[in-house]
Automatic annotation (TrEMBL):
Keyword line: DNA-binding, Transcription, Transcription regulation
Record InterPro entries: GntR_C, TF_FadR/GntR_C, Tscrpt_reg_HTH_GntR, WH-like_DNA-bd_sf, WH_DNA-bd_sf
A Gene Ontology molecular function term of the record: DNA-binding transcription factor activity
One matching Pfam family: GntR
Coiled-coil stretches noted in the UniProt entry, renumbered to this chain: none
Segments forming domain HTH gntR-type: 14-81
The protein's name in its UniProt record: HTH-type transcriptional regulator LutR
Protein origin, superkingdom: Bacteria
Family matches, as PANTHER family: TRANSCRIPTIONAL REGULATOR, GNTR FAMILY, UXU OPERON TRANSCRIPTIONAL REGULATOR
Length: 222
């Protein structure tokens, strides 16, 4: 099988890093395959240097997770991520983040917080793509150890859909600065294990992100 380098953008969210499923998902999240693109099994098998069966199994799994659609006489395609998809993703994240973060505020270790601070330091000088990779790692750190694995997986899938929709669009500098300040405030509130303060900042952070992407993508890319 092809030895493919992991994408830093999505690797924190993918546990099956050695599978064809992960390779295809990486390529969707990085806009190698974009919304509506056909996914031809024979070409994918050639690209990933594998047989047809693993490709079919991966596409079936991706179909079940909402990343791929399969229609008669059309075959498999990357799901069409439209304005309504973006709206739905942000609404789901706004419901899930407070639930998952509440547990993290109470249970996180000093090492977790130090890792978040390290990621934040890297964000200060990161490029646009590097920033999104670091932001993904920052948020993944707050949810990955939660005991409710179904909630974590739902968060993961929606976060990956968001990455796929944003993969070929640049963040502007003002939104990056605003987001970094929101991350700083989250860490500060975490030090005091102040659940209410952390959740207020997190809701503000998700809301601001949703406003930015809804405005930008609806007017320019959908």
């Amino acid at each position: 099988m092809l030895e493919q380098k992991e994408s830093p953008l999505v690797s924190p969210l993918i546990s099956e890093k050695s599978t064809i499923y992960a390779y295809i998902l990486n390529d969707i999240a990085n806009a190698v395959f974009q919304s509506g693109d056909r996914l031809v099994s024979t070409k994918l098998a050639e690209k990933y240097q594998t047989s047809i069966n693993p490709i079919r199994e991966a596409l079936k799994q991706l179909q079940g997770e909402g990343f791929v659609t399969v229609e008669p006489n059309s075959g498999a395609r990357v799901a069409r991520f439209e304005y309504n998809t973006l709206r739905d993703v942000f609404e789901i994240l706004q419901l899930l983040e407070p639930y998952l973060m509440s547990w993290f505020v109470e249970e996180h270790s000093d090492e977790d917080r130090h890792e978040m601070e390290s990621l934040l330091n890297e964000m200060e000088t990161a490029t646009d793509k590097e920033y999104r990779a670091l932001d993904t790692q920052f948020h993944w750190l707050t949810v990955k150890n939660h005991y409710n694995r179904k909630a974590v997986d739902l968060w993961r899938r929606n976060r990956l859909i968001l990455l796929a929709m944003q993969s070929n669009v640049r963040l502007n500098a003002s939104r990056i600065r605003q987001s970094i300040e929101e991350h700083k405030r989250i860490i500060s509130a975490l030090e005091n294990r102040d659940v209410t303060a952390v959740l207020d900042i997190m809701n503000e952070h998700i809301g601001n992100s949703g406003k930015y992407w809804t405005k930008y993508l609806s007017s320019n890319h959908m």
